Amino acid sequence: MTEEIVILDFGSQYTQVIARRIRECSVYSTILKYDTSAKEIAKRNPAGLILSGGPSSVYAADAPIPDPAIFNLGIPILGVCFGIQLFAHFLRGKVERGQRREYGKGTLKVKDRACALFTGLPGKLQVWNSHADKLTKLPRGFQPVAVTENSDYAAIENRAKKFFGLQFHPEVAHTPRGRHIIRNFVHRICGCGRTWTMKSYAHQAIETIRETVGSERVILGLSGGVDSSVAAALLHRALGDQLTCIFVNNGLLRAREEEVVQEVFGRNFKVKLQYEDASNLFLNRLKGVTDPERKRKIIGRTFIEVFQAATRRAGKARFLAQGTLYPDVIESVPIAGNPAALIKSHHNVGGLPKKMKFELVEPLKCLFKDEVRRLGLELGLPNEIVFRQPFPGPGLAVRILGEVTPSRCAILRNADAIVVDEIKKSGWYYKIWQSFAVLLPVRSVGVMGDERTYDYTIALRAVESQDGMTADWVRLPYELLEKLSNRIINEVSGVNRVCLDISSKPPATIEWE
Ligand code: XMP
């Protein structure tokens, strides 16, 4: 049986990070909304509970308050930051607004070395704080464990009940030994083994898919991106020929994309693959269109139309599978002033009209992106698919400024293939979020041999990012830029100039349209 740690989300921007840290200990973790009843939580039989941080003060009128019965579940509880205030609120401690906000690096001194949270750790630790309110009176049954310059109660413990409170954030990278603290909590204190592995997950997921689907048929839209590819491999392992994957060529794909997908899924995996070449339809509808929003709308609508027609041709199916990930389904806690509530994840789910009467299968919906990648490897997908950089649904259209024409697509596809090739050869491809070419259809003068040219410009865009929400441009070495520029200008006819995009997001976006 999979052991589980439940995290109650009080609106911290770090809640998902806590979940990942626990999973990195090979223990399954679930994020639930702060007001989930103790009864609901008990039903899951978790090995421990974590109360996340949050932006609120426990005394604020709209403070997120949990079911008080969670303190009677008889399981270990770790309260992080705002979580420590909750102990105080419910167990007769006291919280006061600090003289000054404690924000940033601090040094933690562990006074009580017998506390199991700090087993194996030195007496002094660097930690990351981010709070204004602080504990001034210990809650009932608690002892102080560690202090910082600013707080006598930076870590507290009720040893009999196995309740722990931390004023700092153990989950963030700025608390370098924080993983060790979390490991101590899940293994030593909650007694969890290492039961959450991709092998065990794959096994369980396959069983669940078989139970849900029975002998019915499933359709999956395969884009060639990481998520839909891993979903395809998993569903195929579970269902074999009951699965049909539909791959739509919208005429806006990268070089060899349709070949790679057909090679990997059709020929290697023997997935039933329905290839829909709709490139002419898409390109015809994009004729003369220059407005970026209109381009996207046309592409989105046409995709739905083509996909719907394709599902009809695929024959009767009861289920539609989607590669939805965990960050897409976690309900963010809507608290005033909560930045996490505003930082919405990009996702590609939805879009398909309700009248498509399918039941949904979402086999990746409890996984984070890095876990999806590990699952892909477990299922035998090649690195080329598992570690590929994100590619937008509207494809090259958002990288061709102005009108999208077949000849401009060809130019960009050739330039992009060179970028991918050189970035891969240099070892940068897997280190950065995205690297690609953009076609600027403004003509400038050049000379080639004795000839005067009047050709287009390619902009190079390479960015690093955690999640696509913010990004910085990558300082690629000059030698690599030189090679890219030389090859693009020499090998791609129609281009006589290459520039480098050195804008960060915000204020620029990653894609140009
Ligand atoms: P922007 O350009 O908004 O992009 O900074 C952020 C991330 O999202 C990708 N992106 C898309 N992905 N459909 C997608 O599937 C889209 O319409 C779309 N637009 C942007 C982009 O490549 C980057 O990784």
- Which ions, cofactors or small ligands are bound in this entry? xanthosine-5'-monophosphate
Q: Quaternary status of these chains?
A: single chain
Structural class, please? alpha/beta
Mean pLDDT comes to 92
The largest sheet has its strands arranged as 2-1-3-4-9-8-7-5-6
Q: Strand-residue fraction?
A: 15-25%
- Into how many domains do the coordinates divide? 3
- Report the principal-axis shape: globular
CATH topology of the largest domain: Rossmann fold
CATH class of the largest domain: Alpha Beta
Q: Runs with pLDDT <50, length 5+?
A: 336-350
Largest sheet: 9 strands, mixed
* Number of helical segments with 4 or more residues: 15
